[in-house]
Design a protein that fits this description.
The structure is a homodimer of 417-residue chains. Chain A is α/β, with parallel strands linked by helices and 417 residues long. The first copy, chain A, has helices at 12-23, 25-28, 38-50, 70-80, 94-104, 135-141, 155-165, 193-201, 240-248, 262-274, 292-299, 339-346, 350-368, 384-394, 412-416; strands spanning 5-8, 31-35, 60-64, 84-87, 107-110, 145-147, 169-179, 204-208, 211-215, 221-226, 230-236, 253-259, 282-283, 289-290, 313-324, 327-338, 376-378, 399-402, 408-411. In chain A, the strands form four sheets. Chain A has an eight-stranded mixed beta sheet with strand order 10-11-12-7-15-16-18-19. In chain A, strands 3-2-1-4-5-6-17 form a seven-stranded parallel beta sheet, with helices on both faces.
Chain lengths: 417, 417
Amino acid sequence: MKKTVLIIGAGGVAQVVAHKCAQNNDVLGDLHIASRTKSKCEAIIASVHEKGAMKVEGGFTAHGVDATDVEAVAALIRETGAQIVINVGTAFVNMHVLDACIATGAAYIDTAIHEEPDRICETPPWYANYEWKRRDACTEKGVTAILGAGFDPGVVNAYARFAIDQMDEVKSIDIVDINAGSHGKYFATNFDPEINFREFTGTVYYWEDQTWKELSMFESGRTWDLPVVGPSKAYQSGHDEVHSLAVHYPQADVRFWMGFGDHYINVFTVLKNIGLLSEQPVTTAEGQEVIPLKVVKACLPDPASLAPDYTGKTCIGDLVTGVKDGHDIELFVYNVADHKDAYEEVGSQGISYTAGVPPVAAAMLVATGEWDAKTMKNVEELDPKPFFTLLDRIGLPTRVLKGGLGGEDMAWSDYVG
Amino acid sequence: MKKTVLIIGAGGVAQVVAHKCAQNNDVLGDLHIASRTKSKCEAIIASVHEKGAMKVEGGFTAHGVDATDVEAVAALIRETGAQIVINVGTAFVNMHVLDACIATGAAYIDTAIHEEPDRICETPPWYANYEWKRRDACTEKGVTAILGAGFDPGVVNAYARFAIDQMDEVKSIDIVDINAGSHGKYFATNFDPEINFREFTGTVYYWEDQTWKELSMFESGRTWDLPVVGPSKAYQSGHDEVHSLAVHYPQADVRFWMGFGDHYINVFTVLKNIGLLSEQPVTTAEGQEVIPLKVVKACLPDPASLAPDYTGKTCIGDLVTGVKDGHDIELFVYNVADHKDAYEEVGSQGISYTAGVPPVAAAMLVATGEWDAKTMKNVEELDPKPFFTLLDRIGLPTRVLKGGLGGEDMAWSDYVG
């Protein structure tokens, strides 16, 4: 059952993945971590040992690799003997790493949709542009590829599947992501600013009345009164999981709502309107060609640096409506995470924590065979119950409000009895 | 009396200078214009001919020159036979051009204080850091150098001198610059964004109680009720003229107030707090070294491009208080300019117009001998009356509110009788 795991990436999420793999290395076996900058990998391994996170004796080795080089990644998979690759590098490398897995037979797990540097917000459903084109290759080779296995996408897809499994018919899925934490900086993004801003500069696609609809960012907003964090303003945003859930549940309306404070919106609006969030190069008066978004990223705090002072909680969940035994039914399936707890456990803030724990749970389910699908799957195509059971144990417990927002609060396992 | 003039620079202000020189080439003689990009100079000359701006027959020739190369500028002065250099290039080249004038004996006129690319907001008085160190060299060589002869600094220095000349004792000089115009863009600066932002990112120095005092930008604001433009919020800002007026009139408090709308302040605050207005390089994740401010500049509209759609008016003036015959006396000396009128006359917006007309008036006074000081002078050290007479005629009439703001409105010439 010990599989040998290769982690790709060395950012804030990789830090969490590394700690969580170490805490579960009895299931996952020897561990490897690789990124462009090997020293970042070494620092992560050092922090794992500092926390005494390795559950049983085992290896944890750092490597340098250019993850856009399929051959190099494939060679590293062969060299390390990795049977599971958890890819939490930048989203620009995803298809390169997946191709390396297909070439070597290793299982592939990622947490975000593939992105091409010079394109933003392509035709929906997004997964059809890159990932799903490789589904047949996975099936032919018997390669397990689990797409979007972070929190959102990832856990929220499992929340949707879980809720839908309790119904005869699903009508709508509204995913709501509220970070009520505070990092104390003038402005910072909670993960790679480049990826963060790219999420919000394009068209907001959502699925309603069995068709793709479009909004601009911040065009549609409402206040959601969520458990623990309380009433919070959230805006319809483009997000990966809408693009698989809409395909798998075309009868349901599928929307994603991200919480934003007025300050974030103001900063975002200024930067966007001036053109500073553009992924297209501009030329300075001195003739230097520069991509503005990369300069904004260089000016902003490193998301990993926010962790020590981050306080407060996140609440992310799915409000799912449908019909059961002829009656309307509503469920809110959710998790609350705490920034400070995350930092104390793995040295990261809560956003990295919620994104980094789920792919490790997915890797454990691949290792145990429960999710070893031998083909490509989005998370809603897999049984959510073993996933929830693991997440309950390793730090992201799933809860349910029976009757929807304001309803009776219980553990998911109590709900299903 | 025909002197031959060399204009350095090819931006929005240079466009105005070129047109105004052409309109007065009976006094100024043959005209030359030089910048790094010769084609920009050719475009300006073409616009001069298009408007039929040349008053009498005469030459107007474009040149390419690197204005940071003192030898190259000196060679161009010799080659053209220029006796007057109007330097409206970027403020980074000022001392290079001045050195070329000192080397060749040509008169030098500029409109802004010299800046070094990597330094912002140096020790007050600013003129002592670069310009005044060359005063003795000017005197020895008999070179006329008129510093800061735009509108502010420039005309406002003459306004101060004029008002002080009406008093026995001066107590305070408050210079107020309100642009009540509208360019219709989300955000734009009225002149080179790099220079514009650099004005406001450093310490705000002002002179009070015979000592230099310091503020942060937007720390001190008040509403000024000015002629034509009406009540306008303005904030104490660092500005060149404070640094010469305080030295020449140490008994007076000297403050500069710049009008800003809430939108400008918001955009400025966001960009500054994120670090995007920094003149110090940052390194992107890809290893590219970039100066953020230069990227912001590349994203913003070219100030010259604002001209066709710019509407509204500017009001810039000096409120000067003092004592005359034992009584307190107050004068507001000012000009109102119109963006649309400026565009129709010379193809530029009002801010470029107010900055570009005065150095041409100064050049004409050097040509006629009235301001041919044979040494280095700030504008307040020169007789303001011939300057006002010329400005009245060539587009920037001077008016006076007797008794200060809200007082009786009259032409300066009526005030002196």
